[in-house]
Design a protein that fits this description.
The chain is 1% helix and 33% strand. The chain is mainly beta and 461 residues long. The longest helix has 4 residues, at 50-53. The model is unreliable at 1-25 (pLDDT under 50).
Length: 461
């Protein structure tokens, strides 16, 4: 949900009034989470296994209205909603929604095979989301195109571009960036000349994506996770930070000097990514989930791990590796246990209104979310960290931060207070805990926000 939405003011669609009345224009206001131009934040909830795995997305508007989105020509197994991303892709200052449909076959379905994948765009307007164009690869294979999505202003033109991951592409994974100024869809892989990485077909390069302005130059960079990348050890994982415009790539693993921890088999470094400004310096910082990290004794290969999260801070030169942090429940309210998968999901948002983002870490094996406070002096701190428990066997499998949702009111002019959205998709439960504008870190009572079927809450937008 991070991206620049500072395009010049444009007039959106005009809503007709009752018969005989003059039309009233409502302009889009440029709020990055507002699909319908009413000034309230909206939330999209994916259920990719709904309707025999055809999939659906429920849009919960800030007004209280609900809409269910599906795909034209939907077929069982398509997984509409396998990923979501929000950004202003057309520059009209209404937030738009991109929906991954990673298991769709553009031709005949291959039993047991990975899908080709497409991405469906829904354009924001004063009428709400309206179906727009569909994106697909020119030569589709078993790519799972649309399995990961991220919006970001990678060229600095004031409108968002869309990065689409295809982690099963035969190159070992592929990312396509759409709507770069003056460019056709731009494909990047490990084999791209200026990326220069060894590639294996099992690397899953592009399985996770996040955008953020790590160097503060006004343009976003793209973080690409490859959680199955076998750099020197099977499944240790990697993250590549890409400056799309300048064509520069930086390769990160737990063996990178300065990054805490040690690369081990099946760590899945990069399985989840999130960006936020944890120290209030105006530059994005990057949190990297390592849910397969084993901390308990006698962990077996390929089992779920206790999990850790690595955090790198932004600077004028980009992400720093000389003062990284490694977080686990060894030093927080909670106890690391085999199968906890601490770091399986991540989200950043300012839950107390102090101008610094907090980090929410999903711990689905413990049915919990761990929340760390941000601060201007030093960034994330263990002081006052929260362990939030909820209902459902996999509470914490997906998390998001959303401003001002509990009051259904117009987004505030000052920095809003975010609330924590958490899903237990195996039970189709989505829950919410409001933030509080006060010193320290406290969240309101966790309450059920909505429920559904088909892995409802698998992804948020």
């Amino acid at each position: 949900m991070t991206s620049g939405m500072n395009a010049l003011l444009a007039v959106c669609l005009v809503l007709p009034l009752a018969s005989g009345s003059a039309p009233a224009a409502r302009a889009c206001g440029g709020h990055p989470l507002d699909f319908d131009a009413d000034g309230r934040p909206d939330l999209a909830v994916a259920a990719p296994y709904d309707a025999s795995r055809a999939g659906s997305v429920t849009v919960m508007y800030g007004s209280g209205e609900k809409t269910r989105l599906t795909q034209d020509g939907a077929e069982p197994g398509d997984s509409f909603g396998s990923a979501l991303a929000v950004g202003d892709f057309d520059g009209d200052r209404c937030a738009d929604l991109a929906v991954g449909v990673s298991e769709e076959f553009t031709g005949a379905r291959v039993p047991g095979g990975d899908g080709n994948g497409v991405v469906q765009i829904f354009n924001g307007s004063p009428r709400g989301l309206v179906a727009g164009k569909e994106l697909a690869l020119g030569k589709p294979a078993s790519d799972r195109f649309g399995a990961a999505l991220a919006a970001g202003d990678f060229d600095g033109d004031g409108r968002d571009e869309l990065a689409v991951g295809a982690p099963s592409h035969r190159s070992g994974g592929l990312v396509t960036v759409y709507w770069m100024k003056g460019r056709k869809p731009y494909q990047i892989s490990q084999k791209t000349r200026w990326v220069r990485q060894a590639a294996n077909v099992t690397d899953q390069w592009g399985a996770s994506l996040a955008s953020g302005d790590f160097d503060g130059d006004g343009r976003d960079e793209l973080a690409v996770g490859a959680p199955a990348d076998s750099v020197t050890k099977d499944g240790q994982g990697s993250v590549t930070v890409i400056d799309v415009r300048q064509r520069r790539a930086r390769f990160l693993t737990q063996s990178t000097p300065g990054i805490k921890g040690a690369a081990e088999k099946w760590d899945n470094f990069g399985a989840a990514l999130a960006t936020g400004d944890f120290n209030g310096d105006g530059r994005s910082d990057l949190a990297i989930g390592v849910p397969g990290e084993g901390l308990s004794a006698n962990q077996r290969a390929m089992d779920y791990g206790d999990g850790t999260v690595d955090v790198l801070y932004g600077s004028r030169a980009g992400l720093r590796t000389d003062r990284t942090e490694a977080w686990s429940q060894n030093s927080l309210d909670g106890k690391p246990r085999y199968y906890d998968r601490f770091g399986a999901s991540l989200a950043a948002g300012d839950f107390n209104g102090d101008g610094n983002d907090e980090l929410a870490i999903g711990v689905p094996g413990e049915k919990a979310v761990q929340v760390l406070a941000g601060r201007s002096s030093g960034g994330l701190t263990r002081v006052g960290n929260l362990l939030v428990k909820g209902k459902g066997r996999d509470f914490g499998a997906s998390v998001a931060a959303l401003p001002g949702w509990e009051r259904y009111r117009t987004l505030e002019r000052r920095r809003p207070v975010y609330g924590l959205v958490v899903a237990a998709p195996d039970q189709g439960l989505v829950m919410y805990a409001p933030g509080r504008r006060e010193s320290g870190l406290r969240l309101g009572k966790v309450r059920e926000l909505s429920k559904g079927t088909g892995l409802y809450g698998y992804a948020f937008g």
